[in-house]
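so i finally got all the pieces together for this one. its two components total, 667 residues if u count the protein bits. some of the lines might not be protein, just check the labels. i wanna see the whole assembly predicted at once instead of chain by chain like last time, that was a mess tbh
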Amino acid sequence: MQTFNFFKPNRNNIKNYSIIGSFFVLVSLIDVISNAFLKINLTFFLPGSLTNLFPLILGLIGLNMMRIDYSGNNTLDLLNKNINTNNFNALLTLLILFSIIKVLPQSLSWMILDATISGDSKDACTGTGACWTYIKVWFRRFMYGMYPNEFHWRINTAFILVIALGFVGYFMKENLKKYLALYYVIIYPVIAYLVIYYLISGGSFGLQWVETGAWGGLSLTFIVSFFCLIFCFPLGMVFALGRRSNLPVIKYISICYIEFWRGVPLITVLFMSSVMFPMFLPEDFFMDKLVRVIIAITLFEAAYCAEVIRGGLQSLPRGQYDAAKSLGMGYWKMHIFVILPQALKLVIPGIANTFLALVKDTPLIFVVGLAELAGMLALAKTNPKWLGFAMEGYIFASIIFWIICYAMSKYSYNLEAKYKTER
Amino acid sequence: MSDPIIKIQNMNKWFGDFQVLKNINLEVEANKKIVVCGPSGSGKSTLIRCINRLEEHQEGDIVVDGNELSEKTKDIEKIRAEVGMVFQQFNLFPHLSILDNCTLAPIWVKKMPKKEAQELALDQLKKVQIDDQANKFPGQLSGGQQQRCAIARALCMQPKIMLFDEPTSALDPEMIKEVLDAMVSLAKGGMTMIVVTHEMGFAKEVADEVIFMDEGMIIEKADTKEFFANPKSDRTKLFLSQIL
């Protein structure tokens, strides 16, 4: 008969080891949970410091006993391979589990159990938890800024139109596919601009004029991000190609451009666009502040895009250029049909990175007085009637930004998978 | 005797300070098959890359089909369209299917209607026996199949001259034969060919002339039989003794 060694589990007594091991782990978890949620200390009989270490030690012994290689039990093998490969990893596993359990009750009670969402003024928030009433009352402001309530349908309609137009590429007929790039680079932005100008700005077709200073909230985040993304990419492409050009003038203009914009902080660019730039313009020439800001961010991000795209261009083997040239393709044909399709595919992760950074940079436009989502929060939290709810606001904004950015990165993974080809 | 289709006179080329090609003189008549051999680093590849100006030469003249190649040449694309090239590493476009690889240049460079280009491509693919792979992507094919596709792609431009830059050097021994077969049948069809290769069997079978290069110079240029039967220079003899 095999001896039952406590610290050296073997396969022969696999049932005993795994059952006793999981029992120990279970006890340690129950101890921590009861401690965190019910404030009951199950190990009150132990001296002070040992009480805190007790679940950890017990859990470690338990995991040690469960660590049997090739046990033949799929669940156990999976567990051992992923979180229980050695004592150190077992310790990390336990520490992470315990930390989550310890933090959970407080955050749960603050965010949900003790939180308030009813009512429509600060007085409703009497509990110790979060005051979601604040978000509820300010929701329209967070979404639409100072845009008049009765005209919100105009923003919604404009966005739906712009999104619908964005999907045109999917339904284009086969023989029109070659104009796809033209559509997305030139026609689509122009149409989108017109839609947003006539619907959101108004001023004609019987729609009341709303100045851009009143725009704000999440809708402004979308507008700024949308135009910057759609313009900075082609511009970046131009400078990426320019930097690799054989013509010295084009090459050095591109280098200067890229190095200039990469060298200045975005916040100074925004200040310059709104404060200094108008001084250089002729007096009768007026350009809206929002347009100036969009141009500034576009120029700024284009420099980053350019370097990302250049990385993709450089990673293509020289043979691709040789082959395209030997077939009689000139510079543009070579790049449009052979080089760029491959290079852009390679830079999808890098471009997604740049775009995500751009979306998260948009709150900076607050410094020139444009209040998009985070800017509206900053305004709302200083409202005398609603002092003291900054936390709720920032959590709300974080969730919104996280959803947007996660959707974007998911989309970029999809694109990567879609255009993946074997080399 | 017709005018030579390729004429190279006193051509010199440097990479930085290093002279890769020294005083090259070469005339190739239409429909001739030339094999260029020599040790690695001897400038063989650079020489044929100069013929469609993938490399620029610094001195001397290169005339291809009546067009001189120099910085002033405006329509270099037009000349390249007349000169097909096959590379050691195949250099197929990995993002396009085999068929699209073959139709891309005819459609966009020669402005051929799409349907016509596809028929032509399938025809050429059939000649190299991979028409059944037309809708696959290069990454899904074996090296030999890829190289045959590269030959078909070059032929789809209906070139007057074909350049081969060590077409079999990157292939497994088993696949070399299928590529050489395709090249032999192309040679029998009367194409003007310049082939850089170490396949002496191929040279003996199809070449009209063999050129031996070393250290950037043409050491010996002779009829195929003459070249293998009694090579003149000692360097050639040494080279042949090592690879035959």
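The longest helix of chain A spans residues 390-418.
Residues 132-147+210-422 of chain A form a domain with the MetI-like fold fold (CATH 1.10.3720.10).
anyway lmk what u think
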